[in-house]
Amino acid sequence: MVIKHFKLILLSILLTVSLASWAKGFTITPTLTVEEQQRFKYYFYEAERLFQNEEYPLAYNLLQFCYMLNPNDAMVNLYLGTFLEGYRQSDKALPYFRRAYQMNPDDLWSQYTIALFNSETEDNRKECIRILEAMTKKQSPASGSPTDMASVWDNLRQAYTATHEYKKALHAQDELDKIEGYNGMSAINRYRIHVLMQKPKDAIADINRYLEEDPTNLQFHLFRIQLYEYIHVSIGTLYPAYEQILELDPYNALVLNNYAYHLATHGGDLRRAEQMSQRAIQIESENPTYLDTYAWVLYLQGQKSLAEFYIRRAISLIPAEKVPEEIQVHLEEIIGL
């Protein structure tokens, strides 16, 4: 049920609020009487207790009482916004996040900007970016912690990327690297941005740069081989990259299959292609693509009967209307149509 997610959602959001914001205490409206102030605090702390006990509807009702008494308390608004977010009522949650931010912009910018961005409306996303950009000018290690600045730049990178402002996204990553240093996440972020920019060579350069620091990182090798295959690099570049992956992961079925198929279709060692393809279907025996590769390698070696068995098996695993053209061509060639 949605309600069961509240504790995780609220904790994840509230834990991002700095201790300083809690130390500031409540924002008590001056017009509240002493009795109303005491009632407000009682309701708030009781709501927190109920929340910790997972009595969410009761906690939510008490927070609404708190809001009626003091609609300008930042933490009450933050809680209510988060509850509504948990109920999948984002449009109703946004005004509460906005009011929380207005009451405490230094500490509650993250929740508000995330809510703005997730609303997916152009105006709200522009507002999200405007706030984050303003924070980069306002904050510095002298006035805000490096961790705060890193979060600002990281959120801004994500916002720029999602709105296709890729050069700005790369600049945001540059600023983030100045704070946290270059690392694997930096490399992945740059790689993804360059892929979105349709600059695969730049994306490959991002991967190669990181592999110089961590040459055994399998995930980065896999990122690179996908790009190599996409831009059709030379055999002299592609095959060593396949070999590096198989040294790290000898049972990577995808790489075994792709390497075998490339050998078979580019005049390579058919015997080795057969061995690798056979290993791939041993790992994933119901994968029609791998079965097709194996059938084609066998056919090129002159083993037509065995090739026909495997190509028909591959076809049997695919709905008739979804058989890829390449597999259909292989079938017709093998059975002699």
Short description:
With 337 residues, the chain is mostly helical.
Account of the 3D structure:
The structure is a single chain. This protein has 19 helices and no strands. It has helices spanning 6-14, 19-23, 34-52, 56-69, 74-86, 90-103, 105-118, 122-138, 146-162, 166-180, 184-196, 200-213, 218-231, 235-248, 253-265, 270-283, 288-300, 304-316, 325-335. It is elongated, with a radius of gyration of 29 Å. It starts with 5 loop residues before the first helix and ends with a helix. It is an all-alpha fold and 337 residues long.
* Principal-axes shape call: elongated
Structural class: mainly alpha
Give the low-pLDDT segments.
1-26
Task: Count every beta strand, where a strand is a DSSP E run of 2 or more residues.
Answer: 0
Distance between the terminal alpha carbons, to the nearest Å?
Answer: 56 Å
Give the overall pLDDT as a whole number. 88
For the CA atoms, what is the radius of gyration? 29 Å
Largest sheet: none
- How many H/I helices? 19
Q: Helix share of residues?
A: over 70%
Indicate the proportion of strand residues. under 5%
**Helix and strand succession?**
HHHHHHHHHHHHHHHHHHH
In terms of topology, how is this protein built?
Layout: H1 6-14, H2 19-23, H3 34-52, H4 56-69, H5 74-86, H6 90-103, H7 105-118, H8 122-138, H9 146-162, H10 166-180, H11 184-196, H12 200-213, H13 218-231, H14 235-248, H15 253-265, H16 270-283, H17 288-300, H18 304-316, H19 325-335
